[in-house]
Amino acid sequence: QGVRTQPYLMGGHGGGRMRIGWVGVGVMGRHMAGHLMAAGHELSVFSRTASKCAPLVEAGARLASSPMDAAYGADAVFTMVGAPSDVEQVTLGGGGVLEALEPGSLLIDCTTSTPSLAQRVAAAAAGKGVLALDAPVSGGDVGAEAASLSIMCGGSDEAMGGSGYLLDLLGSRVLHMGPAGAGQHTKMCNQILAANNMLGVCESLRYASAAGLDADAVVRAVGAGAAGSWAMNNLGHKVVANDFAPGFMIEHMAKDLGIAVSEAERLGLELPGLANARRLYDALLAAGHGRDGTQALVLALDSPTNPAVSPC
Hints:
The chain has about 300 residues and is an alpha/beta fold. It has helices at about 30-40, 55-60, 65-70, 85-90, 115-125, 140-145, 155-165, 180-210, 215-225, 230-240, 250-265, 270-285; strands spanning about 20-25, 40-45, 60-65, 75-80, 105-110, 130-135, 135-140, 150-155, 170-180.
């Protein structure tokens, strides 16, 4: 654990051509699925909005009619959907992937979800002889497109070993964090940091503007120093330009922070930074900014009645 995975040998595949099902084609999922195809794997893809699958289908993927259809005959299935309820539906529900997956196959969920659901999915999968891994990712659309994601994995050693070759096609750092649910707990650590870092970026750049500084120059100066961060270097210029095109949407961050708050409460923790970030993102969500990128958090600072935000 804690070491980048190595290519695996499973069922004679040895890193060769595999049949893969992919469920959920969003901003990040489309790039991730594309990397698997580019490596020569055979892909069946499903999305509730079939048009999102069009680029993958044009590249040679088969369009599946349901999650179960995507999983028929698959050596491995990836799910990357919006919310824990979606994960439950496409894995454990009627017409879900576990109704089709065969013993020895892999189920890899890259959705940010709850640790308890990850444990339920792993248990249900084990009952069918399927190896399950919760493998949420970090790096946004930039990391998904560049195959440089950080992937945080929870599951058995066998599941991790079986999934490593595929995950190495999607990320530059793939770590086994512990048993089922550990990947999701690690992602909560990530989201607590990401939300507070984004708030720091927005406050810093609003200060820069108020002080009469060239805010873009501030991004370059600060981004190269000890206070630099992924958020500053990748999203700082967007904050300055009021460019709120999403790499990671506010509605997803708000969902993730809700999970983090619930888990922190369950663990008996009081995390004021997390609570404040959630309050601000929830305000943006209520004001209709759910489909904007997380850098739109700056809007929560533009009102004298913070955290009230400007309506769409």
